[in-house]
Here is the input.
Amino acid sequence: MKTIAKPFQSSIDIKKSQFICRLFPAQNEKEAKEIIKEISEKYKDATHNCTAYLVSDGEAYDDDGEPGGTAGRPMLNVLKKNKIENTVAIVTRYFGGIKLGAGGLVRAYSKSVLETLSIAEIVDMELYEIFKFSFEYQHIKAIDSEIRGKNLSIVEKQYEADVIYFVACDNIDIVKNIQEKLVKEVNIEYLGSRFLEKID
Here is the structure.
């Protein structure tokens, strides 16, 4: 799955109207809606804040007062055509006094998203199972050895009273094998699935 690495923004002027496109990574509809709410409130002085998103649990678009089908849907179509997922597109328009017509609006909103995608850093993401490994400091060498040997990836380390590793894996059986082998040394907790940049 392809998505953007971080937020990106670009702006174009068409017949005195300014179109500012902002792209944001988002894992699900809840995140997407929170981003849209925040940006719409921040730029409520704009004539329109049109939106589209394509995420793991759904898709949606909103023309925000533009004629039906001239903004949100074309924006969503650009994401789909370029196979960009887990992404929110918001195009803020400041009207310059010259009407563009339905065809002109479709082209303007599509171009705005396309131009921002052209400068965005695109990354390949995959769905991984995330596990929390908790263990005493004396077992670091043994745990590290197992993780390296099984080609697992540590996405975060915390050194507190105990050592905590957050480990990404695409095969739960491998983690079960470690738990059985080191049952006295490590406590492993399953945290659920998460999209991460593809691990080689």
Notes: The first strand starts at residue 2 and ends at 4. The beta strands are 2-4, 8-14, 17-25, 48-55, 58-62, 87-94, 122-135, 153-159, 163-169, 186-197. The CA atoms of residues 3 and 84 lie 5 Å apart.
